[in-house]
Amino acid sequence: MAFPMVTFLVKNKKISSVSKNGENIMPISVIDLYKNFLPKTNCGDCKQTTCFAFATFVITEKYPIENCPHLDQKSISKLHKQLKQQYASGKWLKKDPAKDAMEWAKSRASSIKIEDLPAKIGGRTITVSNEPAHELPYFSDIVIITDHDITKIDGTKVTLYEQVFIYNHIAQGGHVNPTGNWKGFQEFPNTISKIKSMIDHVEKPIAARFSRKTDDLLSEAKKIGGQDISDKIESPDLSIEFLPLPKIPIRLIFHDEIRTEAIDADVKLLFDETIVEHLDIESIMFLSERLKQLLCGNEC
Asked: Residue 90's domain is classified under what CATH number?
């Protein structure tokens, strides 16, 4: 197992912090812990492979320092005091990108009142535990937004990344309604760096999964609220419109494989021109990938 030694060597500086009682506490790095406290025998009694691995987990993931049976009680007490403050400050702790992103997105949306959400993003205001909440359709499900949390209607948690997505939608939602003017992803500003990802990670996998299986695609689409609109659009084998969020429709255009002409199956996602009023480009990508996941499950 590899450990981020270079990171900690670079950061191995003596930077003092001040406790509430005015006492100077020196943050302890992985190298400090390894060199000055641990036996360096790599005995494995702590259930880690090496002493350096143990030090890394203690500093970055709050692994209990007392799990090293070769430390005396005086050293453990001293380390507990230092590590408690260090953990509280977040210094050298391993970051959780999903949690960091969620906190950032939540802070963006914090100024928006629950009562303002119906006009902003659709859905309706309801009451949960005598407090205002927002009921928002999300694909074929419903999420409940309160001042504190986002859950599904059955009370189960929404994933961290879905919370990030919904909070970003709340923060950016621009009140505008769809116009019915459809555009490909590449037609929106600032999408150049994401076009390949849209093709390789969303459109191509869907096309491959449902090649010569048009009926299967329609069946899976209907499970998440998709509507067959093939009679409104000429040429493609199948056109489906989804409404993953009240003000954000998506169209999926499917051309099936033609073996006699050596033409592969093809999928193209189209978005209402107003989507950029409600979602940033990263959020559009997330929504597109979520659509793929719901359609394909583990098969693409």
From this structure: 1.10.15.40
